[in-house]
Design goal:
The protein is built from ten helices and nine strands. It is an alpha/beta fold. The protein has two domains: about 5-175, P-loop containing nucleotide triphosphate hydrolases (Rossmann fold, 3-Layer(aba) Sandwich), CATH 3.40.50; about 190-300, K homology (KH) domain (GMP Synthetase, Chain A, domain 3), CATH 3.30.300.20. The protein has a six-stranded mixed sheet, sandwiched between helices. Strands 7-8-9 form a three-stranded mixed sheet. Helix 3 (about 100-110) links the parallel strand 4 and strand 5 (about 115-120). It starts with a strand and ends in a 6-residue tail after the last helix. The mean pLDDT is about 95. The structure holds guanosine-5'-triphosphate and magnesium ion (MG).
Length: about 300
Protein backbone atom coordinates (compact mmCIF):
# COMPACT_ATOMS: atom_id res chain seq x y z
CA UNK A 1 0.00 0.00 0.00
CA UNK A 2 1.36 3.45 -0.84
CA UNK A 3 2.03 5.80 2.06
CA UNK A 4 1.75 9.60 2.00
CA UNK A 5 3.15 12.24 4.30
CA UNK A 6 3.10 16.04 4.33
CA UNK A 7 4.13 19.10 6.30
CA UNK A 8 1.34 21.65 6.70
CA UNK A 9 1.73 25.16 8.15
CA UNK A 10 -1.32 26.59 9.95
CA UNK A 11 -1.06 30.40 9.80
CA UNK A 12 -3.16 33.50 10.40
CA UNK A 13 -3.60 36.65 12.46
CA UNK A 14 -3.58 36.27 16.26
CA UNK A 15 -6.68 34.70 17.82
CA UNK A 16 -8.05 33.16 14.63
CA UNK A 17 -8.35 29.61 16.02
CA UNK A 18 -5.08 28.10 14.73
CA UNK A 19 -4.12 26.24 17.90
CA UNK A 20 -7.69 25.05 18.51
CA UNK A 21 -7.69 23.69 14.95
CA UNK A 22 -4.34 21.94 15.45
CA UNK A 23 -5.71 20.22 18.58
CA UNK A 24 -8.84 19.18 16.67
CA UNK A 25 -6.78 17.78 13.79
CA UNK A 26 -4.49 15.84 16.13
CA UNK A 27 -7.46 14.71 18.24
CA UNK A 28 -5.93 15.71 21.58
CA UNK A 29 -4.80 18.85 23.36
CA UNK A 30 -1.16 19.29 22.36
CA UNK A 31 -1.03 23.12 22.29
CA UNK A 32 -2.53 25.75 24.56
CA UNK A 33 -5.27 28.16 23.48
CA UNK A 34 -6.80 31.31 24.95
CA UNK A 35 -9.00 34.27 24.12
CA UNK A 36 -5.93 36.55 24.30
CA UNK A 37 -4.07 37.34 21.06
CA UNK A 38 -0.49 36.02 20.72
CA UNK A 39 -0.92 32.99 22.94
CA UNK A 40 1.26 30.75 20.75
CA UNK A 41 4.96 31.58 20.98
CA UNK A 42 6.56 28.64 19.21
CA UNK A 43 6.14 26.76 15.96
CA UNK A 44 4.88 23.49 17.41
CA UNK A 45 4.40 20.40 15.29
CA UNK A 46 1.30 18.30 15.84
CA UNK A 47 1.41 14.83 14.29
CA UNK A 48 -1.61 13.04 12.80
CA UNK A 49 -0.91 9.41 11.92
CA UNK A 50 -3.22 7.04 10.06
CA UNK A 51 -2.47 3.70 8.37
CA UNK A 52 -1.83 5.26 4.97
CA UNK A 53 -0.67 8.82 5.75
CA UNK A 54 0.97 11.11 8.26
CA UNK A 55 0.40 14.86 8.48
CA UNK A 56 2.74 17.11 10.41
CA UNK A 57 0.64 20.21 11.16
CA UNK A 58 2.70 23.15 12.35
CA UNK A 59 0.91 25.52 14.74
CA UNK A 60 2.41 29.00 14.43
CA UNK A 61 2.24 32.30 16.35
CA UNK A 62 -0.33 34.82 15.08
CA UNK A 63 1.18 37.27 12.57
CA UNK A 64 0.90 40.85 13.86
CA UNK A 65 2.58 44.26 13.75
CA UNK A 66 5.49 43.66 16.15
CA UNK A 67 5.96 46.07 19.06
CA UNK A 68 8.73 44.17 20.85
CA UNK A 69 11.76 42.05 19.97
CA UNK A 70 9.70 39.00 20.85
CA UNK A 71 6.96 40.09 18.41
CA UNK A 72 9.50 40.33 15.57
CA UNK A 73 10.95 36.92 16.45
CA UNK A 74 7.46 35.36 16.41
CA UNK A 75 6.71 36.75 12.94
CA UNK A 76 10.04 35.39 11.62
CA UNK A 77 9.12 32.02 13.09
CA UNK A 78 5.93 32.01 10.98
CA UNK A 79 7.82 32.89 7.78
CA UNK A 80 10.29 30.09 8.46
CA UNK A 81 7.47 27.63 9.11
CA UNK A 82 6.02 28.31 5.66
CA UNK A 83 9.30 27.48 3.93
CA UNK A 84 9.19 24.16 2.11
CA UNK A 85 5.86 22.88 3.45
CA UNK A 86 3.53 20.92 1.19
CA UNK A 87 0.45 22.92 2.19
CA UNK A 88 -0.43 26.17 3.94
CA UNK A 89 -3.74 26.66 5.76
CA UNK A 90 -4.71 30.29 6.40
CA UNK A 91 -7.22 30.63 9.26
CA UNK A 92 -9.78 33.42 8.98
CA UNK A 93 -12.65 33.58 11.47
CA UNK A 94 -16.14 33.55 9.91
CA UNK A 95 -17.14 36.35 12.25
CA UNK A 96 -14.44 38.96 11.58
CA UNK A 97 -13.98 41.23 8.57
CA UNK A 98 -11.00 40.35 6.39
CA UNK A 99 -8.47 43.18 6.60
CA UNK A 100 -4.95 44.42 6.05
CA UNK A 101 -3.46 41.81 8.42
CA UNK A 102 -4.92 38.97 6.35
CA UNK A 103 -3.72 40.60 3.12
CA UNK A 104 -0.20 40.89 4.51
CA UNK A 105 -0.14 37.14 5.22
CA UNK A 106 -1.83 36.27 1.89
CA UNK A 107 0.94 38.12 0.05
CA UNK A 108 3.52 35.95 1.80
CA UNK A 109 1.52 32.79 1.04
CA UNK A 110 1.55 33.79 -2.65
CA UNK A 111 5.35 33.55 -2.70
CA UNK A 112 5.20 29.83 -1.84
CA UNK A 113 4.42 28.73 -5.38
CA UNK A 114 4.45 24.95 -4.96
CA UNK A 115 2.52 24.70 -1.67
CA UNK A 116 -1.19 23.84 -1.78
CA UNK A 117 -3.14 26.79 -0.43
CA UNK A 118 -6.21 26.27 1.70
CA UNK A 119 -8.32 28.88 3.44
CA UNK A 120 -10.01 27.65 6.63
CA UNK A 121 -12.98 29.83 7.57
CA UNK A 122 -12.90 29.12 11.31
CA UNK A 123 -15.47 29.41 14.14
CA UNK A 124 -18.51 28.84 11.91
CA UNK A 125 -20.47 27.88 15.04
CA UNK A 126 -20.47 31.60 15.91
CA UNK A 127 -21.49 32.86 12.45
CA UNK A 128 -24.92 34.25 11.65
CA UNK A 129 -26.56 32.94 8.45
CA UNK A 130 -25.50 35.60 5.90
CA UNK A 131 -21.96 35.89 7.31
CA UNK A 132 -20.64 32.64 5.89
CA UNK A 133 -21.38 33.10 2.16
CA UNK A 134 -20.09 36.68 2.43
CA UNK A 135 -16.88 35.47 4.03
CA UNK A 136 -16.38 32.82 1.33
CA UNK A 137 -16.55 35.53 -1.33
CA UNK A 138 -14.25 37.82 0.67
CA UNK A 139 -11.71 34.98 1.09
CA UNK A 140 -11.67 34.34 -2.69
CA UNK A 141 -11.14 38.06 -3.33
CA UNK A 142 -8.30 38.15 -0.79
CA UNK A 143 -6.37 35.49 -2.71
CA UNK A 144 -7.13 37.16 -6.04
CA UNK A 145 -5.74 40.48 -4.75
CA UNK A 146 -2.61 38.69 -3.51
CA UNK A 147 -2.15 37.03 -6.92
CA UNK A 148 -3.19 33.42 -6.41
CA UNK A 149 -6.30 31.30 -5.98
CA UNK A 150 -7.14 28.88 -3.15
CA UNK A 151 -6.96 25.17 -3.87
CA UNK A 152 -9.82 24.88 -1.39
CA UNK A 153 -11.84 26.99 1.02
CA UNK A 154 -13.12 25.00 4.00
CA UNK A 155 -15.59 26.48 6.48
CA UNK A 156 -15.19 24.67 9.82
CA UNK A 157 -15.54 24.80 13.57
CA UNK A 158 -12.73 23.28 15.61
CA UNK A 159 -14.82 23.76 18.74
CA UNK A 160 -17.78 21.65 17.57
CA UNK A 161 -15.58 19.45 15.33
CA UNK A 162 -17.58 20.44 12.28
CA UNK A 163 -15.79 19.79 8.94
CA UNK A 164 -12.40 19.24 10.60
CA UNK A 165 -12.39 15.74 9.11
CA UNK A 166 -13.02 17.26 5.67
CA UNK A 167 -9.90 19.43 6.03
CA UNK A 168 -7.93 16.38 7.17
CA UNK A 169 -9.12 14.39 4.13
CA UNK A 170 -8.12 17.21 1.77
CA UNK A 171 -4.67 17.54 3.31
CA UNK A 172 -4.18 13.77 3.07
CA UNK A 173 -5.27 13.88 -0.58
CA UNK A 174 -2.70 16.58 -1.35
CA UNK A 175 0.13 14.82 0.53
CA UNK A 176 2.92 13.43 -1.65
CA UNK A 177 4.03 9.80 -1.46
CA UNK A 178 6.49 9.58 1.39
CA UNK A 179 7.30 7.46 4.42
CA UNK A 180 6.23 8.80 7.83
CA UNK A 181 8.47 11.41 9.47
CA UNK A 182 7.65 10.52 13.09
CA UNK A 183 6.82 7.35 15.06
CA UNK A 184 3.11 6.47 14.93
CA UNK A 185 2.52 7.09 18.65
CA UNK A 186 4.02 10.60 18.70
CA UNK A 187 1.50 13.49 18.65
CA UNK A 188 3.75 16.51 19.25
CA UNK A 189 7.41 17.44 18.78
CA UNK A 190 7.38 19.83 21.72
CA UNK A 191 9.66 18.79 24.56
CA UNK A 192 7.83 17.77 27.71
CA UNK A 193 9.35 20.60 29.73
CA UNK A 194 8.01 23.18 27.26
CA UNK A 195 4.60 21.51 27.20
CA UNK A 196 4.41 21.78 30.98
CA UNK A 197 5.62 25.40 30.94
CA UNK A 198 2.87 26.22 28.42
CA UNK A 199 0.19 24.53 30.55
CA UNK A 200 1.23 26.74 33.48
CA UNK A 201 1.22 29.80 31.20
CA UNK A 202 -2.27 28.88 29.97
CA UNK A 203 -3.55 28.82 33.56
CA UNK A 204 -1.69 32.04 34.44
CA UNK A 205 -3.08 34.08 31.52
CA UNK A 206 -6.65 32.78 31.77
CA UNK A 207 -8.15 35.71 33.67
CA UNK A 208 -5.67 38.58 33.44
CA UNK A 209 -6.15 41.53 31.13
CA UNK A 210 -4.57 44.06 28.78
CA UNK A 211 -0.79 43.78 28.57
CA UNK A 212 -0.39 41.24 31.41
CA UNK A 213 -0.86 38.00 29.39
CA UNK A 214 1.86 39.11 26.97
CA UNK A 215 4.22 39.84 29.87
CA UNK A 216 3.96 36.33 31.28
CA UNK A 217 6.52 33.62 30.55
CA UNK A 218 7.13 30.38 32.41
CA UNK A 219 10.36 28.54 33.17
CA UNK A 220 10.42 24.98 34.54
CA UNK A 221 13.15 25.02 37.19
CA UNK A 222 13.06 21.37 38.18
CA UNK A 223 11.15 18.14 37.54
CA UNK A 224 11.76 15.00 39.56
CA UNK A 225 9.87 11.76 40.07
CA UNK A 226 9.49 10.30 43.57
CA UNK A 227 10.60 6.77 44.17
CA UNK A 228 7.64 4.38 44.11
CA UNK A 229 6.82 2.57 47.38
CA UNK A 230 5.12 -0.25 45.46
CA UNK A 231 5.68 -1.11 41.78
CA UNK A 232 2.06 -0.44 40.80
CA UNK A 233 1.81 2.92 42.59
CA UNK A 234 0.91 5.84 40.28
CA UNK A 235 3.94 8.02 39.48
CA UNK A 236 4.34 11.18 41.58
CA UNK A 237 6.19 14.18 40.19
CA UNK A 238 7.59 17.25 41.96
CA UNK A 239 7.69 20.24 39.65
CA UNK A 240 9.06 23.67 40.47
CA UNK A 241 8.45 26.50 38.02
CA UNK A 242 8.86 30.27 37.80
CA UNK A 243 6.20 32.56 36.39
CA UNK A 244 8.12 35.47 34.90
CA UNK A 245 6.55 38.94 34.56
CA UNK A 246 7.93 42.31 33.49
CA UNK A 247 6.99 44.56 36.44
CA UNK A 248 6.39 44.45 40.21
CA UNK A 249 2.78 45.56 39.67
CA UNK A 250 2.23 42.49 37.48
CA UNK A 251 3.78 40.27 40.12
CA UNK A 252 1.18 41.56 42.58
CA UNK A 253 -1.63 40.79 40.10
CA UNK A 254 -0.40 37.23 39.55
CA UNK A 255 -0.07 36.55 43.27
CA UNK A 256 -3.40 38.19 44.19
CA UNK A 257 -4.71 39.08 47.65
CA UNK A 258 -3.22 36.71 50.24
CA UNK A 259 -1.77 34.62 47.40
CA UNK A 260 -5.22 33.39 46.38
CA UNK A 261 -4.80 33.91 42.65
CA UNK A 262 -1.46 32.15 42.44
CA UNK A 263 -2.95 29.26 44.41
CA UNK A 264 -5.80 28.97 41.89
CA UNK A 265 -3.38 29.13 38.93
CA UNK A 266 -1.38 26.35 40.60
CA UNK A 267 -4.47 24.18 41.09
CA UNK A 268 -5.67 24.67 37.49
CA UNK A 269 -2.23 24.05 35.99
CA UNK A 270 -1.65 21.00 38.21
CA UNK A 271 -4.86 19.37 37.00
CA UNK A 272 -3.80 19.78 33.34
CA UNK A 273 -0.26 18.56 34.09
CA UNK A 274 -1.59 15.49 35.92
CA UNK A 275 -3.63 14.63 32.81
CA UNK A 276 -0.54 15.01 30.63
CA UNK A 277 1.78 13.03 32.92
CA UNK A 278 -0.85 10.46 33.92
CA UNK A 279 0.26 10.70 37.53
CA UNK A 280 0.10 12.84 40.65
CA UNK A 281 1.92 16.16 40.80
CA UNK A 282 3.18 18.59 43.41
CA UNK A 283 3.52 21.96 41.67
CA UNK A 284 5.55 24.72 43.33
CA UNK A 285 5.16 28.11 41.63
CA UNK A 286 7.37 31.17 42.17
CA UNK A 287 6.86 34.60 40.60
CA UNK A 288 9.90 36.47 39.26
CA UNK A 289 10.34 39.89 37.65
CA UNK A 290 12.54 40.22 34.55
CA UNK A 291 12.12 43.89 33.56
CA UNK A 292 10.89 44.27 29.94
CA UNK A 293 11.97 40.75 28.97
CA UNK A 294 10.00 40.94 25.72
CA UNK A 295 12.53 43.47 24.39
CA UNK A 296 15.66 42.27 26.16
CA UNK A 297 17.95 40.13 24.00
CA UNK A 298 19.56 38.36 26.96
CA UNK A 299 16.26 37.62 28.69
CA UNK A 300 14.76 36.31 25.44
CA UNK A 301 17.65 33.86 25.00
CA UNK A 302 17.26 32.77 28.61
CA UNK A 303 13.58 32.09 27.92
CA UNK A 304 14.51 30.04 24.87
CA UNK A 305 13.59 32.41 22.03
CA UNK A 306 15.89 32.47 19.01
CA UNK A 307 16.39 35.93 17.59
CA UNK A 308 17.99 36.45 14.19
N1 LIG B 1 -16.76 29.39 19.16
C1 LIG B 1 -15.56 29.00 18.74
N2 LIG B 1 -14.46 29.49 19.32
C2 LIG B 1 -13.26 29.08 18.86
C3 LIG B 1 -13.12 28.18 17.78
N3 LIG B 1 -11.81 28.00 17.54
C4 LIG B 1 -11.16 28.74 18.46
N4 LIG B 1 -12.03 29.40 19.26
C5 LIG B 1 -11.69 30.30 20.37
O1 LIG B 1 -10.97 31.40 19.87
C6 LIG B 1 -9.95 31.81 20.80
C7 LIG B 1 -8.60 31.81 20.10
O2 LIG B 1 -8.28 30.46 19.77
P1 LIG B 1 -6.78 29.98 19.57
O3 LIG B 1 -6.86 28.61 18.98
O4 LIG B 1 -5.98 30.18 20.81
O5 LIG B 1 -6.31 31.03 18.46
P2 LIG B 1 -4.85 31.19 17.79
O6 LIG B 1 -5.09 31.58 16.39
O7 LIG B 1 -4.04 29.98 18.03
O8 LIG B 1 -4.28 32.43 18.59
P3 LIG B 1 -2.73 32.91 18.75
O9 LIG B 1 -1.92 31.73 19.19
O10 LIG B 1 -2.82 33.95 19.80
O11 LIG B 1 -2.32 33.46 17.43
C8 LIG B 1 -10.04 30.85 21.97
O12 LIG B 1 -10.81 31.46 22.99
C9 LIG B 1 -10.76 29.64 21.38
O13 LIG B 1 -11.49 28.90 22.35
C10 LIG B 1 -14.32 27.67 17.18
O14 LIG B 1 -14.32 26.87 16.24
N5 LIG B 1 -15.49 28.14 17.69
MG1 LIG C 1 -2.26 29.78 18.98
Amino acid sequence: MSHKAAFVAIVGRPNTGKSTLVNALVGEKIVITSHHPNTTRNAIRGIVTRDDFQLVVVDTPGVHKPKTLLGGALNSMVSESMDSVDAIVLCIPAVEAIGAGDFFIAQEIATHKTAKKICAITMIDMAKKPQLPEQLIAASKLAEQAGFSWDDIVPLSAKTDDQVQLLLDLLAKYAPESPAFYPADMTSDQELENQLADLIREAAIADVFEEVPHSIAVIIDEISEREKRTPDERPFFDIHASIVVERDSQKAIIIGAKGERLKQVGTNARQEIEKKLKGRVFLGLHVKVMPNWQSDTKALSKLGFNQQ
